[in-house]
From TrEMBL:
Name the record gives this protein: Uncharacterized protein
Domain of life from the UniProt record: Bacteria
The species this protein was found in: Candidatus Kaiserbacteria bacterium CG08_land_8_20_14_0_20_50_21
């Protein structure tokens, strides 16, 4: 029984599991339901269990410290940690559009798939960003990708994470976002071409 399993895993009673945003209150221990407009502004920050369906569709939320490091510092720290940096990612880091925050701060990252956002197949960059905004999310700051790369060392093999960020344009005017990858060559900070209409 899925409902009974939730009560055990979430260590709560039935009334502490919300299935629609209107059920969320100070006693809510878990949210299992569709991602509706503004949902991420309604969920308490300390809410650990967020699922679009239980148990297979958990939404991961992670905190990462951003800001306070120059591009040179980030490159140096990644190289010291044995993290590979592609030439495209390096050129993004050295681009004048790459402006890290001056002071350290904590950012909460929400990891979503295209399906989590409600798309049945692929979606364009613009469609993804628009849907994320409707759900109450903001784009990541430019230095979030490199800082998350430094933190996220136990990435599973063959996992790709694309950062939802304002694209950084190269010298040819092509827009790129940071990409976090682990392949047979190890951990990478890479770059993905992410034009507005690209799927």
């Amino acid at each position: 029984n899925t409902e009974e399993d939730m009560l055990v895993i979430f260590e709560c009673v039935r009334e502490q599991i919300a299935h629609v945003p209107s059920q969320i209150n100070g006693n809510t221990k878990a949210y299992v339901g569709q991602l509706e407009p503004g949902i991420f502004q309604k969920l308490p920050e300390n809410l650990e269990h967020v699922y679009t369906s239980f148990p297979e569709k958990k939404i991961r939320r992670e905190n990462v410290e951003i800001g306070g490091k120059s591009a040179e510092q980030l490159i140096s720290e990644m190289e010291a940690a044995g993290i590979n940096i592609s030439n495209y990612a390096k050129s993004m880091l050295k681009n004048r559009e790459f402006v890290p925050g001056k002071n350290p701060e904590e950012a909460t990252l929400i990891r979503l798939t295209v399906a989590d956002l409600g798309f049945k197949s692929s979606a364009t960059t613009d469609q993804i960003y628009e849907r994320a905004q409707i759900l109450g999310l903001e784009l990541c700051l430019a230095d979030t990708g490199p800082n998350y790369r430094l933190k996220y060392r136990n990435q599973p093999l063959n996992e790709w994470i694309y950062m939802g960020m304002k694209q950084i344009t190269d010298s040819d005017g092509s827009p790129f976002v940071f990409e976090l990858v682990r392949d047979d060559g190890g951990l990478w900070l890479d770059a993905l071409w992410a034009g507005p209409g690209i799927k």
